Amino acid sequence: MPDERSLIKRVGELSPADRPSGQALHRPLLLLWAVGQARKGRPRELHWSSIRDELGKLLGDFAAVTNPRQAALYPFWALQRDGLWEVKVPQGLPLTSARRRPTLSTLDSLDPLAGLPQRDHDELSQDPALAAQIAATLLIKYFNPLPTGLLQAVGLSDLLAGRVDTALRPQVGERYDHRKAIQSVYGGNGVMGITPLADGIITVYSDDKGPYADARVPGTDWIAYTGDGLSGDQKLTHGNKNMRLYQQQQRPLRYWHKPYGGRFSFETWAVIVQCRRRWGLGDDKLWRREYVWVLAPVPSPLKATWPEEVWDALAEDTGEVHDDSADVVPDEVVDDALGEAERYRRLAEAAERTSARRQERSKQATVERYLRSKAARDAVILRSRGRCENPGCLGHPDELTDAGKPLLQVDHVDDLSRGGPDVPEFMIALCPNCHAVKTFGQNRRHLVAVLLRTAKTLHRAFILQSSAEDHQLSG
After folding, report:
1. Contacts of 116 (CB under 8 A, 6+ apart)
2. What percent of the chain has a predicted confidence (pLDDT) above 70?
């Protein structure tokens, strides 16, 4: 009797064992073959001997097993536990000493019938779209890139040739008003930001309203996506653990985005090309270390369609977590007993240490420069004393937000996306009006020169003040 959960959900929950050589492909391959048999109109149940020979050849060709006959036994028996397979055997069937499965000789002797549960077989036989979705899900998750000859070998060429990616649901561009609406159609969790849909493929959700500061990386189409965990230091558990696995296995995931006041849209497929750790404010307004997953959009989940720059980034990614939080310390974490100039000097030095590691010219370096030193920004805000640093400011230089914070934007005088240094000497705090003039104004080139001189002058003044304080203390 099949499980009452939907067929898509049961397939999505299939969890092959991880081995040093990769995931065990035995059960996914049997299931793919069974979908092909249903589409070809073969009987629902076949004898073990027929399944053994056909599945054994597939395992030899596409799973690199050395003993195909023996290897066929495991999925033939184990797929029952997933609610996706039935074996007709007499009661009292002798099992191995571990009582996990019968022996090969026992199955050869009894030659029992087996196949998909009746309801699943009927659905796959009668609904080509469902069959295509199930098969495509298995291919994307376990056989990506698609091995040559696999579709023909499992009897799915007519169903899926040239349309593996388009057989999946949802499709890129689909929109829904809210998360619960997505859940009602495609399953998954309606709350968590990192969660699989019913088919088991990880989906990440980004909402411009918050609570996370997700954003496109300037100068690229890549996405800086904040990890799982609202308060306290984030850990490599739950959603972050799944993201780590996807990074290591270079697996595609779905990226949904909701602009402020808009609807959730399945914006793109993406692959993780880097993971960083930085300081950020938690939901409790306290500083914590958080993960940032750098997502590179790809045209489809099929690896054969991914552009060269994505493969270059994946080759460059070592799989390590780049810990920016070691050198980059928010000003709230710095010892309050230090003088203002000394705090500034320490923050500036931390920013310079981090910047020194980011001189390579590559897309990965562009990302690293964007996910810049938190210390650099904090140093500039400290130096500004809450006022716009443009000497010719005509706006509201000391305006505050509702939270009592300075209404300032820290800007790289030489744009960061164009290689501007990520250190306080080349950065300045501007009110929104001056920032707009510097970015769009007719006289912006002249203003940039003024701001650059100002930033350097203010920086030197703080460094000299810090040195004077050190000299007084040592004297």
Report:
1. 34, 38, 44, 84, 85, 86, 124
2. 88
Find all residues with CB under 8 Å of 315, minimum gap 6, and list them. none
The four Cα atoms 210, 428, 277, 318 give a dihedral, to 10 degrees, of: 120
Residue 89 confidence (pLDDT) above 50 = yes
Q: Where exactly does CATH 2.30.280.10 map onto the chain?
A: 169-324
Q: What's the DSSP call for residue 146?
A: P
Listed in order, strand segments (DSSP E) in 359-440 are 409-412, 427-430
DSSP class of 400: B
Domain 169-324, second-level architecture:
Roll (2.30)
Beta bridge partners of 144: none
CA distance linking residue 295 with residue 118, whole number of Å: 41
Rounded CA-CA distance 63/153 in Å is: 13
Residues β-bridged to residue 321: 275
Q: Supply 142's token pair.
A: 């376990």
Torsion, Cα 224 432 390 447, to 10 degrees, reads: 80
DSSP annotation of 79 reads G
Q: How does DSSP classify residue 233?
A: S
CA dihedral 428, 429, 433, 439 (to 10 degrees): 30
Tell me if 267 sits within 8 A of 257, measured CB to CB.
yes
| pLDDT value for 465 | 86
417-453, pLDDT tens digit by residue?
A: 566 677 899 999 999 899 999 988 888 889 999 999 9
The encoded tokens of residue 28 equal 């996914």
Contact 108, 48 (CB under 8 A): yes
pLDDT for 474 beyond 60: no
E strands in 90-142: 113-115
Write down the pLDDT at residue 144.
95
Enter the tokens of residue 326.
């070691």
Beta carbons within 10 angstroms of residue 456's beta carbon: 15
Residues 6 or more apart whose Cβ sits within 8 Å of residue 81: none
Scored b (16 or more CB within 10 A) or e, 26-42 reads: bbbbbbbbbbbbbbeeb
Taking only the tens place, the pLDDT of each residue in 289-327 is 999 999 999 999 999 999 999 999 999 898 889 887 776
Q: How confident is the model at residue 349 (pLDDT cuts 50, 70, 90)?
A: confident
